[in-house]
Amino acid sequence: MDNGRLRGFTSTAFISLCLVPACFGSAFSITELGARATGMGTAFIATADDPSALFYNPAGIAFQPGTHFEMDNAVVVGLFRFTPATAPPGQVVPPNGYSESIRPHFLPLAFLYATKQLSPRMTFGFGVFTPFGLAANSTNFNDGDPNLTKFVSRFAGTRVRLESYWFQPTLAYRLTDNLSVAVGPTFVHTHLELEESFLNPLGYDDGLKFGRTAAPVILPGVPVDLAASIISRLLPEGRSRIAGTANGFAISGGLLWKNALPKTDIGLLYRSSVVNHLSGKASFAFGDKPYALEQYVGPSFLPNAFPNQAITGSFPTPATYGIGFANSAIRNLRISADVRMQDYKKFRNLPLDFPINENSTTLTNIALPAEKILNFNFRESWNFAVGAEKKLNELMTIRMGYMFDMSPVPSQSVGPLFPDSDRHSFTLGASRKSGNKEFTFFYEAMKFVDRQTNVAANDYQWTNGDYHNFAHVAGLALRFDMKEH
Hints:
The protein is mainly beta and about 475 residues long. Helix content is about 10%, strand content about 45%. It has helices at about 5-20, 35-40, 55, 205-220, 225-235, 295, 300-305; strands at about 65-85, 100, 105-115, 120-135, 160-175, 180-200, 240-260, 265-270, 275-285, 310-315, 320-325, 335-340, 350-355, 370-375, 380-390, 395-405, 425-435, 435-450, 450-455, 465-480. Strands 1-3-4-5-6-7-8-11-12-15-16-17-18-20 form a 14-stranded antiparallel beta barrel. A hairpin with a 2-residue loop joins strand 17 (about 425-435) and strand 18.
């Protein structure tokens, strides 16, 4: 490939990566980071024979001679629907429930991998990918709309966007002719946004809590609980937005053993956990319409109580452990199977620290705590994948696969941020070679197991109900195999 074509390829890849938003994964994991692997149900740990091995098992690049570039692109169309079990009196619920994928209707993804053999035993690789991401949007309303027409679970969240970019240089080394190991120190950049409504008039830790705080000022002499119930119903609905970024480091590693006699390969994968120390901003808004209490407390009362400010917080992404097996004893047919575990139990909560949390000479009646903790209490997640690849001729290969993904999200945390459940995925794929290029396509049908929740603590956030979800994922990959001179 000449330098001009190479520059064009890398420029296109860079632009695509700049457009990467997040995807619906198990909780917030993404496994569809290689078109060939996804066509095989993502059972690729013991195969790992294209540049996307940098994600699935970096030890695989040690068996890839020469220089290779690969760019993968995918589109996700999520069909997420929620029907609440209960709703506030007078609430207008759509006949078919609420859509939890308002906009955008589809999500593009892109990943970039490159490998170069440095010596007969050592290979260098570099990958840019997003193993964790999330995009959910239930904002089917404008702030000025009547409250009873808005998304009923908006006090539990209306929009979330998580993107975790991994920049992974990797060195792989062949210890023997059929055994390799690899290690990849990784720089991780994470971006998080959370939006929700607040001042829920029936929320004990929301509108009622603020009512109890404001009662001595607004209704002095009235019993606190009675005053709180009155105040909470006379407040406007607020909107909050949390946005922050974090930089951190991770490490990835792998091992691949190729047994030539029975044609059976075994692979191991490890990807470390990352604690993301967020730094960002919290902002609060209350609409531009007057509200019942404003004439008594003044227009600055609520902005003073909830001041916009810089915040900090932290949350972990889980470590990943995987083992894979592949066999190619049957002519032109490769069968593979993977088991992966992610320790999501580390993702118990997301603490947010508000430095402006006490009264001062310029701000009074501050209602923000020093620390707000969002509790999730996730559990471990297990993923099982099987796949097959059949070579039809020297130019054409076809694939199919199946994956079962166990959701780490407990019933208490199922809602607009995580409308998650166990899921079954069926995949198809194909590749065609043309000179030093290979074009790969895959399609994945992801059926979420219907889920019904009934958690008493969530009654006044109205997240209990029926969740019916499905997702279509389709992708293309372009790989260049560079000729060595």
